[in-house]
Each structure stands twice: as C-alpha cells, then as structure tokens.
Amino acid sequence: MKTEKAEVRIDTYLWAIRMFKSRSLTSDAIKGGKVKLKESNIKPSHIVKIGEVYTITVSSSNKKIIEVLEITDKRGNFETAKKFYADHSPPIEKAEKQAKAFFTMNVKNEKGSGRPTKKDRRKLKKDGGWFLDT
C-alpha cells in the first residue's frame, strides 16, 4: 500500500487511513476547523509530511491525535491503514448514564396471565392508572 508519491493532500491522506468515509466528508471537516495542525487550522490542500501531528475533533468530548508515520494515497483495509499513523489519542471517557426515557409499568401481574380484562382495567384506573409517575 505504500506509494511512491512524494506529495499527498491532507484530505486524501485522512481518507486513505480511514479517518473519514469519503474525501468530501474529510474536506468538509477540514474546512470546518475540525482538523488542526499544531492548534491552527489548515486547508484541504495542505501537503502531509512525515512526523506531523494532527488533532481531529470527532465530537465535543472526543478528539483523535494522530502522527504521520508513512504517506499513502491508497485506501486499504483497517489493518493496513494502521501502519501509516500512530494514534496518540487519550482514552475515551464514558458518557454519564441518562435517565430512562420510557414509563415504568405500575401493573404487577403474573407472567402468563394475559391481558387485563375490562374489569381489571377499570380497577387499575381507579387505583391510579397504568404507569408510575417519575
């Protein structure tokens, strides 16, 4: 997968090492300031050099820091692509657990008893309804 090309654009390189799905997505991310070289914005036409360290903002809390080890412009599988860069990213922090988005059932019925009858539903309604208020 190593190429003889001496100059490769950053958008092509990041696409080739599988950081983005397409070159247009890569180019849009670079133009949007999500890819930086030494804390400064770059253009999609920036020429990649061995030893440069790029910071890619994936989300507000997730950043990837990669160092260029070899240059390529050919996209291959993930195992091959890992040879072209060193990942210096900090470990990903787990997101806080969100509150449940669904109601908790207030009904306690025996397994296999089936659906409540009309009489049971009237009784449930009188006793406070189907769901707990949380």
User: Radius of gyration in whole Å, from Cα?
Assistant: 27 Å
> In one word, what is the shape?
elongated
Q: Could you give me the name of the CATH homologous superfamily of the largest domain? A: RNA-binding S4 domain
Give the class from helix and strand content and strand pairing. alpha+beta
Taking strands numbered 1, 2, ... along the chain, how are they ordered across the largest sheet?
A: 2-1-3-4-5
Strand-residue proportion: 15-25%
- Give the helix tally: 4
Summarize the structure in words.
By secondary structure, the chain is α+β, with helices and mostly antiparallel strands. The chain has two domains: 10-87, Roll (Structural Genomics Hypothetical 15.5 Kd Protein In mrcA-pckA Intergenic Region, Chain A), CATH 3.10.290.10; 99-134, no CATH class. It contains four helices and five strands. The chain has helices at residues 10-16, 23-31, 78-81, 118-127; strands spanning 35-37, 40-41, 53-59, 62-68, 85-87. Strands 2-1-3-4-5 form a five-stranded antiparallel β-sheet. A hairpin with a 2-residue loop joins strand 1 (35-37) and strand 2 (40-41). The radius of gyration is 27 Å and the shape is elongated. The relative contact order is 0.16.
Layout of helices and strands, plus pairs?
Blueprint: H1 10-16, H2 23-31, E1 35-37, E2 40-41, E3 53-59, E4 62-68, H3 78-81, E5 85-87, H4 118-127
Antiparallel strand pairs: 1-2, 1-3, 3-4, 4-5
